[in-house]
Amino acid sequence: MPHRRGGASEERKSPACVCLQIWSSRVSRVEGTLQGASPDLALWGQEPSTSQSSLCPFGGAPRSSSCHFHRLVLLRTTLHHYPYAKKPFHTDVHRDNMDQSGVLLWVKAEPFIVGALQTPPPSKFSLHYLRKISAYVRTRATEGAYPRLYWSTWRHIACGKLQLAKELAWLYFEVFDSLVVRTPEERLEWSEVISNCTSEDEVEKQRNQLSVDTLQFLLFLYTQQLNKVSLRTSLIGEEWPSPRNRCQSPHVTEKPTCHDKNWNDYSHQAFVCDHLSDLLELLLEPEQLTTTFHSTHSSLVSREAVVALSFLIEGTVSRATKVYPFHELALSQPLHAESGFSKISKTFSFYKLEAWLRAHLTGNPFGTSACLKSGKKLAWAHQVEGTTKRAKIACNTHVAPRMHRMVVMSQVYKQTLAKSSDTLVGAHVKIHRCNEAFIYLLSPLRSVTIEKCRNSTFVLGPVQTALHLHGCDNVKVIAVCHRLSISSTTGCVFHILTPTRPLIFSGNQTVTFAPFHTHYPMLEDHMARTGLATVPNYWDNPMVVCRESSDTSVFRLLPPCEFYVFIIPFEMEGDTTEIPGGLPSVYQKALAQREQKIQIWQKTVKEARLTKDQRKQFQVLVENKFYEWLINTGHRQQLDSLVLPAAGSKQAAG
Predict the structure, then answer these.
(1) In this record, what's one Pfam family (predicted)?
(2) Prediction pTM value
(3) Are the beta carbons of 374 and 327 closer than 8 angstroms?
(4) CA–CA distances in Å: residue 164 to residues 127, 156, 225, 553, 611
(5) Rounded Cα gap, residues 541 and 543, in angstroms
């Protein structure tokens, strides 16, 4: 959660996770009244690790509390933590060689992957208005505006001066907080506080105690320009303002033609380089600017402003294996001459600092491009010859430090893939152009982006920050996540548990929301590690965020008569034996009524006193109808894909 008065944040640790292998067994898992056996997912052993960062689950209207809080907190506080076997990345910067020619700086990926919403920002987030906000907050330092910006002050600025709706103002405030390091206990505590509120006024009273770093928040608001649609750039072919800017029926082997700026590290670097002067000027004290809000040759940048830049930039030095926040490098004694820092004034020369930044900004060594180019190819527990040879799955977890882990999956076709291992823990995951696939990622994840997938099902472990879908058709997603957002989707179904309102951006058609309806043995353990609780849960209260329309007819809530629980067809160690938080009463009632019908039918058959031959004939008829149903619903393909291939084509999950 954002900083609370008198609160303090702690360093987070990441969990030990179980590596699984799928063993041979046909499963008769179906969605409906029929139950089936689950094939074993053999335990391969535990890998030592540390727990991951967590996210603050908060949302809109209050809902009832739950005893699950105490269970999650207990799980979290009784975990055993182990150190990484890798060398540490964060140590004392002054112990390393500070040869200025060896300094490498790059733009961090997470502020764009998680922080930049995949929708054009409000027009009032332009540089002109942000400069006015920057000057205004400094004049209101005693009123909760600077150096930390309280929710009540931001609400006043956003609603009173920028004319934004309060829900939109809270959205950006909360999204920024999802980038801030918090312990799982702090996140769970905030969820409990909000769940115990009985009115909107009580919720607002609790929010008024929250604050964020003012200068970093200004940078965050400016980064929303990443997805701004520009008619000028449209004329030269960079983009075109279409609500559904994607290929309607991409082939699984087709090369991608559209760029996802949130995951494109070249776009991140270009954005910062193109707007570096504006970003620096946004952080300047008012007296360092002209009347038109521009810098002068003698402008000085405060130490606090340089610390704020660490929100976007980090780096390292030659022959070092450590990653440092930007301000630690800029303030290092051997680099003062280059970075423009003065020990006397405790400030930086604006032009020296800008020149130093431009001279040393380079590509992100842990970004998507590096992952695709030199990342480690993953081996999965299921891999069938022929149908999955085209699949491309890579990760950088063997070289990347915590918070930089990345997994990219592309072109998985007609296959079931399942994984739960340390490779996935805390990773940013991108799933791209998958078709007729069933993918299970049963580990705590940092963020997930699913793009241009069709006719597929994704079952995810708890997602600490953002789960985003773009350009998908006929996709089902089952997940516990801090935030869900969707754009340009058609016919997709979302079974989710989320403490924030789902975000519906532009270009969506026939979206269905439904309650989270599955579990696996380590689910509550993973939720505790990520700070995600069972309440509040706003799966049924989406927020339409698009300029062209606020029409709520774009989505529906799944009718109870269409609801079935989902059985994850693997076994693993753990304590979770039921759906966390249970089901809403109307859906639980629908399941009970269906179960009652089954019992009545079974009783009718039993009382019919059929002969042995009649029972055999009746069994054949039922099985034929069952197989016919499997084929018509597409479940036959999923069951077939769960059969372990021949030993020669099997690879262990790694």
Answers:
(1) TBCC
(2) 0.81
(3) no
(4) 16, 10, 17, 23, 73
(5) 7
Contact 52, 422 (CB under 8 A): no
CA-CA distance, 94 to 100, in Å (whole number)?
Answer: 13
- With CA atoms as reference, report the closest residue to 445 among 471, 417, 416, 466: 466
- Tell me the C-alpha distance between 269 and 407, whole Å: 20
Q: What are the CA-CA distances from residue 418 to residues 28, 85, 482, 646 (Å)?
A: 17, 25, 22, 17
Token readout for 368 is 């998507």
Alpha-carbon span 386 to 364, nearest angstrom: 34
DSSP for 216-250, written as a single string: HHHHHHHHGGGG---HHHHHTTS----TT-S-SS-
Residue 510 φ/ψ, nearest 5 degrees: 45, 60
Q: Percentages helix, strand, coil for the chain, rounded to the nearest 5?
A: 35, 20, 45
| Encoded tokens for 573 | 């160690």
Which residues have CB under 8 Å from 148's CB, separation 6+?
Answer: 3, 211, 212, 213, 214
Mark 603-632 as b/e (b = at least 16 C-beta within 10 Å).
eeeeeeeeeeeeeeeeeeeeeeeeeeebee
CA distance 430 to 367: 12
CB proximity list for 177: less than 8 A, separation 6 or greater? 1, 2, 56, 210, 212
Other Cβ atoms within 10 Å of 251 Cβ, number: 11
What Å distances lie between residue 281 and 56, 135, 411, 544, CA to CA? 31, 11, 43, 34
CA atoms of 456 and 472, how far apart (whole Å): 9
Assess contact for 305 and 146: CB atoms under 8 A: no
Tokens of 64: 């009832």
pLDDT, tens digit (0-9, with 9 covering 90-100), for 51-76:
333 333 333 344 444 444 444 444 44
pLDDT tens, position by position, 410-421: 999 998 899 999
**Torsion, Cα of 333, 280, 227, 514 (10° steps):** 70
CA 175 to CA 180: how far, in whole Å?
10
Average pLDDT over residues 597-614: 88
CA–CA distance, 405 with 407 (Å, rounded to integer): 7
**pLDDT for res 637:** 72
In angstroms, the CA 107 to CA 109 distance is 6
Rounded to whole angstroms, the Cα distance separating 480 from 555 reads 20
Distance CA 591, CA 206 (A): 37
Q: In this structure, is the dihedral angle defined by the CA atoms of residues 431, 60, 127 and 246, taken in order, positive or negative?
A: positive
Which tokens in the block code for residue 7? Answer: 């609160």
Residue found under tokens 């604050």: 211
Contact between residue 41 and residue 573 where contact means Cβ atoms under 8 Å apart: no
By the 8 A CB rule, do 532 and 57 touch? yes
CA–CA separation, 516 vs 530, rounded Å?
17
* Residue matched to tokens 């987030």: 125
Cα 452 to Cα 469: distance, rounded to the nearest angstrom:
8
